[in-house]
Design a protein that fits this description.
Elements (H helix, E strand, L loop, with lengths): L12 E5 L16 H15 L3 E5 L13 H11 L4 E2 L6 H8 L6 E3 L7 H4 L3 H8 L4 E4 L10 H5 L6 E3 L1 H15 L5 E5 L6 H13 L2 E4 L1 H10 L9 E2 L13 H12 L3 E5 L12 H12 L3 E5 L1 H9 L8 E3 L3 H7 L5 H7 L13
Parallel strand pairs: 1-2, 1-5, 2-4, 3-4, 5-6, 7-8, 7-10, 8-9, 10-11, 11-12
Length: 357
Amino acid sequence: MKVLSDFGFENKKVLMRCDFDVPLDEKGNILDDFRIERSIPTIVYLTKKNAKLILMCHLKGFGDEIVSVAPIQKRLAEYLDCPVIKAKNCVGKEIEDWISKMSPGDILLLENLRFYAGEKENDQEFARNLAKLGDIYINDAFATCHRKHASIVGVPKYLPSAAGLVLMEEIRILSKIRKNPVRPLIAIMGGTVQEKKGLMFVEKMSQIADFVLVGGLIKKSIEKEKFSFTSPQKIILPVKEAMSDFDLGPETLKIFKEKISQAKTIFWSGPVGKIEEERFSKGTMEIAQAIISASAFKVAGGGATIDFLRDHNLASKFNHLSTGGGSALAFLAGEKLPGIAALEEGEPRSVKLSGKP
């Protein structure tokens, strides 16, 4: 897989897939810009190399509706302290004409990819039309690498491609946990896992971790599915206590904290309580404090987990915050992420971008 240093970007049109899917409130205001902030080093690197930078992303608004990326444009301009132009569309002659007039160092943000059905369907014509916009493709959207979308797996078929700085850092750190962790390795799995595939992540994590501590909602899913684990002795479930299913009780917290205190590597994905309600956030806070107190390499992933840590000014206490939720779990479980596989496939096809496959 190629990286940024493998290319020269002088005067090149660089099509970069970013992860800007940040949480918005009902008025469209950004609630947490962690993913935007993480993308800045790659963007700065490319603009300093005099690339003509075309950014593409998707964005879900309040209630998961697909919305304009206008809030992203404004926040990027604030971080970069330079103009960021937003296109009205993702593809088409108007966009191509605009790009032809770009100067080295200019930044163009394409409109939301998911306004086009061809993105999620991995439509090859849509992928080719995106590829027509650039000379080189960069994927820096680790959180979307588990999706077989046109901007993730389609475009690399037609352009020389490389991984951005965020993607390379995610691969490096998560590979260390998966292949060569300092033990004991403790995985903490919270949130809601309702599908059987989600429970398989717990199963696969138990194969690499010394213990997997799971939240109450996952326990309910395990019981509902009557799921059987290969190494049940590694799965630590909440004990039955006279309190709500939406948070951990004192006896469970005591057991979990004892395991965490012994860890040398910790991976945490998902709050252990229904933190949307303050009364159910106590367990998640105690788990966070226990992880911080442990003499371990600490990694947290997933949007809700990262939001919680940043809201409570605890993010700096962790060695790494992963931009990925499902993608981080899939990577640790040993799955080949489609977005990473697409970058590893080598040279792009010798196909005219305007032609049919």
